[in-house]
Amino acid sequence: MQIIHTPNVIGAHITSVDLAQPLSTADFARIEDTFNERSVICIRGQTLNEPQLIAFARRFGSIDQNFLTHYAHPKYPEITYISNIKENGKDIGHADAGSVWHSDMSYVEHPPRATLLYALEVPTENGKVLGDTQFSSAAAAYDSLPDATKQRIAGLQAIHQVAGRRAKTGTGQQDQSLRRAQPSVVHPVVRTHPHTQRKCLYVNKGECEGIEGMPQAEALALIAELADLTVQERFRYTHHWQVGDLLMWDNCALQHLASFDYQWPRHRRFMHRITFGATR
Fold first, then answer.
1. Could you please report the per-residue DSSP string of 198-218?
2. Dihedrals φ, ψ of 163, to 5°?
């Protein structure tokens, strides 16, 4: 097994390992240690069936269920389809996932430790791969703050709502009634990572609609300030997809954003997603 760190503050590529075969405790520990250190890892060249994918995810923690259950695999509900493919005029999967900078499922009481995305079909145009995903380190962003700002935001609690400010972007309208049915939850503006103990900024402009005890205008301004810092170029890694990529990212330590430079039916994108390891 080969592990190569990217030149960015996050990201690593892992090759020469076949997850369809039994994975030793030592090799799994190397993968998990790299994941905790680098926040987003790509294990390339995989050929996995659904039980093998689920079994690998379960080694990191219990699997979580997304509320968009109509996009779940019909035989393996642990897997959610991420796809732009339509059948009978309807999306077979979550087509606009990642359309704003966010941390997956921050709108639930126990957000998942990580998200796993396994690429089965990747869109291309004249040999160029489309649909890159960008990641940005919320831990590095926090570390960059001056001490006065760290003291100012210590102890603040942000309100997360999946249907809140995200609705204003015009994305996810086909599922908006389901989004509105989800309750708001509260999380620390500065979240302590459950495994590394690093402090991470845990706010985004897509789904954070306020801060407890703070006037709305002031709260939104602070959310925007911290969110914009989190996604600065210096903290980013951009992933260029290949079929067979198994990508995992840490939902406490970073945020991510998908690109939508592809269109159905000219391009096809189809991936399996699993979220797992929920923590408060």
1. -EEE---TTTEEEETTS-HHH
2. -95, -5
CA 225 – CA 13 distance, rounded (Å) = 31
Rounded-to-integer distance, Cα 115 and Cα 108, Å: 14
Q: 55: how many CB neighbours lie within 10 A of its CB?
A: 14
The torsion defined by the Cα of 95, 101, 103 and 106, in degrees rounded to 10, comes to -90
User: Are the beta carbons of 256 and 102 closer than 8 angstroms?
Assistant: yes
Domain count, the chain: 1
H or E stretch at 255: strand 254-258
Tokens 């039916």 locate to 265
Backbone angles phi, psi at 31, to 5 degrees: -65, -45
Residue 7: give the domain boundaries: 2-276
- DSSP code for 16: S
Model confidence pLDDT, tens digit, residues 234-274: 999 999 999 999 999 999 999 999 999 999 999 999 999 99
Indicate which CATH number applies to the domain containing 252: 3.60.130.10
Reference 129, options 231, 16, 238, 42; nearest CA is 238
Residue 180 scores a pLDDT above 80: no
Burial class (CB in 10 A: 0-12, 13-18, 19+), 272: buried
Determine the residue type at 266: R
Q: Look at residues 201, 258, 256 and name the one whose alpha carbon lies nearest to residue 225.
A: 201
CA distance 210 to 164: 10
Confidence (pTM): 0.93
Mean pLDDT taken over the chain: 93
